[in-house]
Amino acid sequence: MKRMSALAVGLFMVSGSGWAAMYKCDDPATGRPIYSQTPCAPDAQVMELKIHRPTPEQVRQHEAQVESERRLIEESRARRKASQEPSQSQTPRDTPPPPQPGKPAES
């Protein structure tokens, strides 16, 4: 799980390190803004994109939160599994199984 978290954070940081231009133009038909990675008109405005890069502390906090949630999920699964398993007091081994419908009971 830690590898996946570290990989996700690493990819997030790498993807934000490249520079990409975003252009804003007005649609001549509607007048509404259009955003594109390529200039959409001769008067296209280059938009500056602000990319959030988490601090190392934010990364550590996120990893701690993910680990905590993972433990809670595992504990919940274990409790659910334990509650679904019949206890030995409920099904003693020396008691014959109940008769099945359509079959006569054994005597």
UniProtKB/TrEMBL annotation:
<dbReference type="Pfam" id="PF13511">
    <property type="entry name" value="DUF4124"/>
</dbReference>
<protein>
    <recommendedName>
        <fullName>DUF4124 domain-containing protein</fullName>
    </recommendedName>
</protein>
<feature type="domain" description="DUF4124">
    <location>
        <begin position="15"/>
        <end position="60"/>
    </location>
</feature>
<feature type="region of interest" description="Disordered">
    <location>
        <begin position="54"/>
        <end position="107"/>
    </location>
</feature>
<feature type="compositionally biased region" description="Pro residues">
    <location>
        <begin position="94"/>
        <end position="107"/>
    </location>
</feature>
<feature type="compositionally biased region" description="Basic and acidic residues">
    <location>
        <begin position="54"/>
        <end position="77"/>
    </location>
</feature>
<dbReference type="InterPro" id="IPR025392">
    <property type="entry name" value="DUF4124"/>
</dbReference>
<keyword id="KW-0732">Signal</keyword>
<feature type="signal peptide">
    <location>
        <begin position="1"/>
        <end position="20"/>
    </location>
</feature>
